[in-house]
Amino acid sequence: REIQDEELRKFSSRITSLLQNHDLGIETIDCLQRLFLIVSATKYDRKLDSKFVELLQTALCLPKCPEQVQALCAAILREMSPSNYIVLSCDEIQDAKLLSLVSSILLAQGNKKAEVLAVGQRVVKVLEGRLPESQSSRHLLPLLSKIISLSPASLTEDQTNLVNKRMVDWLRYASVQQGIAQPSGGFFSNPRARQPGPITEVDGAVATDFFTVLSIGQYYTEDQWLNMQAFSMLRKWLLCYGDGANSPHSDDRSEVDGSVMSMVSATSTSSRLLPPKERLREKAFEYCQRLIEQSNRRALKKPDGDLQKACLIEAVTIMDIICRQDASYVYRTLSCLKILHGRISGDHSYARALLPIAQFFLNHSETAAVDSEAIYRHLFTRIPAQLFHSPMLAFEFIQFCRDNVRFFTENLSLFRQSFPNLFKTTAWNSEFRDLLPALLGADTAIEIFHFLLDLPCLTAALDVQLRSASTPISERAAWDPAAKPASCLEAFPHPLYPSTFQYLLRTESAPRDSPERLAPLRQLLGSMASCPRVVQCADTVPVLLQLYFGVVKEFADGPLINQLVLVLLERSEQLYELPAFKADVHRVLSSQLVLLCKLHPSLIVELSKELLEFSGTVSNIRNKEGIFTSVVWAIGEYMSVSYDKRCTVEQINKFFEALEAMLFEITQLRPSASIPKYSPRVITVLMTTLTKLASRSQDLIPRMSLFLSKMRAFVQSPAMASVYSEEDSEEILTRATELMNLLKMPSVAQFVLTPPAEVASPRFHRDTNVSLPLAMKTASRLLERGTGFVPG
Questions:
Q1: Roughly what angle, to the nearest 10 degrees, separates helices 746-753 and 774-785?
Q2: Is the dihedral angle over the CA atoms 583, 586, 588, 594 positive or is it negative?
Q3: Where does the record place the AP-5 complex subunit zeta-1 N-terminal TPR domain (predicted)?
Q4: Domain range list for the chain
Q5: Using CB atoms within 10 A of its CB, is residue 305 exposed (0-12), middle (13-18) or buried (19+)?
Q6: Crossing angle of helices 234-241/157-172, nearest 10°?
Q7: CB neighbour class for 138 (10 Å; exposed up to 12, middle 13-18, buried from 19)
């Protein structure tokens, strides 16, 4: 990266000299390797001379150029792409390997249709002919795969039919004998040692059926390599060119009758009579059936076992594609996958293969009139509960749910009922946003709200569950069930905690159970607050809460909003002990509380008893100032006949007395005691709310005016001056003065502080929680200039 342009130019000149002298030996290879490292090790373009680039292209196309030099020249030219200096063409190239290298450079020039079309045409033309024995088609299949990704329309129907025929041969008719080892030479070479043996299965048995990617050999023949490559691109090829629009089996008959008749026809007719597209589909289906059969064998080596699982997933996915393109295969696949599901459902190592199986039943169970709920139940209840810690499975599981979320929400009640299980993937992997809206409904909203607030606690419990499962039995035997557990790990199997752990780790919804039982568990799991995974989970909760309230407000009615507000107030002090987490959650809850009150203003009257109790508790200011402020603001804004005819003067007086006592409590002078500092925002909101209430019950106006007049003494006292800054004091005093002036005109005060709906809507200045209409300041300024400006 530190090599300067001048140094690079000199180095390029040295390589130029070697290439011009046709010195393609070790020194040239070393220099090209170093040049490739230089041009690829930085994101900035390395400028190479046009003549040098031309020389690299010439060397690449030399008839007797060594393979290493060719590969390095191609790699350097790819790194430089796109470049105007590259003038290569694949039109006349006959050598398959050179065509592969040149085409890779042309495709790296960018998604130019002309380039892609030219490469595609040339690749198919070479595949069409018979290559010399020294050349191989397998250099061209990766190119073909890239071409159909970039531009599927670049191949004509005749060309796709040609490739269909070639793929049938590669998939179905590869040799079942192992390849021959390359002769090492020498006088004592043994001809018998080079005789090919039979291909074997993963369990060591001699293969008795056709070759597949799961067939094992020490060496592989050319057609066997093509077999493996063809299978690797089969899914992509079928999706691009395997649609069933021209299928001979698609007609106007009913789906079921048509499927049965097609199945009989397909099994009784020679596949050689089928058109190329249908014949490839038939051979691909047989190949996948063979892979499923091979996956039942016990692999002798772990890598072979991993390959079995990967091939099984791919095979089921391809069978699903084939069935979507031609319904005649549905019944043949159905029985096969039922047996497969029964065989692997209890083996966690095959859990990822259950997703494409479930996808198949989801796509085709209606066509085949099959009830697939047992498969979905196993997927939603067992898999997340036991394998939430597998990142790959969690990602694929969430993707599966995301892809089918509409079907699940409309047709499968089990999906919403299983949300506690689905939340485990969120708690462990922090990935859930797209599914949350689909899980929310009037029946699950409250329980999901509790669950969201307990997500960090759930993460800690899952960590304990994992560690407990891996704890040696001898160590667990030493724990005393009669003694109080000393750690979370000891608490997991302890008789005091099993029900609470079971409730938190439940697999299905339990709306009737009380979340209050988790309080001891939150305290116990508090020791894990510094765990990175718990902290990461805690960071996602505020985002999920914002999303939650955004969805709930779309369907929530009055009773649900009332219930949600009560739970919000209750849970605001029952959170996992993580200071940053509590602060972030309180911030979200306070803002959402205001929105809920705007959505259903009558809740202030309907929940007056609970709100009165909450707003009359001083500790709520210290522990959750934002939520307390929002509650007080909402009381002042919506405790009015304008919003609910049931609002009475008695209720207004009760709220006034409670909030007046609260304001007096936090503003009284205590010369001998330490003075707790409350934010100016709390004080100004309390003053404003009290003034609003007084304007609606005018007997309270003298009382409120007297209180406001004492605020100057409070602010200017030495004790308060030591606590509040000059700006804070000015803010409190200004608001008190404005409110006191306003109360001098009761009718104006009522209009300003409780404006009619037609006046309230277009307010020119509004802060979400605390500010008043512009009219308030206007009235205050009029009073300050003299009574002559005041009407009447």
A1: 160
A2: negative
A3: 1-266
A4: 157-179+199-241+274-370, 371-472+486-600, 601-765
A5: middle
A6: 150
A7: buried
Find out whether 215 and 201 touch, Cβ atoms under 8 Å. yes
High-pLDDT (> 70) share of the chain, %: 86
Cα–Cα dist 212/222, whole Å: 13
Q: 175-213 b/e with 16+ CB inside 10 Å = b?
A: bbbbbeeeeeeeeeeeeeeeebeebbbbeeeebeebbbb
pLDDT in tens, 625-679: 999 999 999 999 999 998 989 999 999 999 999 999 999 888 875 554 555 678 8
- Cα(324)–Cα(317) distance, rounded to whole angstroms? 11
Confidence label for 81 from pLDDT (cuts 50, 70 and 90) = confident
And the tokens for 433? 């946003």
What is the value of pTM for the model shown?
A: 0.81
Please check the confidence at residue 258 and state whether its pLDDT lies above 50. no
Max CA-CA distance within the chain?
Answer: 126
**Residue 445 and residue 552 in contact, taking contact as beta carbons nearer than 8 Å:** yes
pLDDT in tens, 192-236: 556 778 999 999 999 989 999 999 998 899 999 999 999 999 999
The amino acid sitting at 69 is V
Query: Distances from the Cα of 629 to the Cαs of 142, 527, 624, 753, 770, in angstroms?
Result: 64, 31, 9, 18, 9
Residues contacting 132, CB < 8 A, separation 6+:
none
State the alpha helices, DSSP H only, in 129-221. 141-150, 157-172
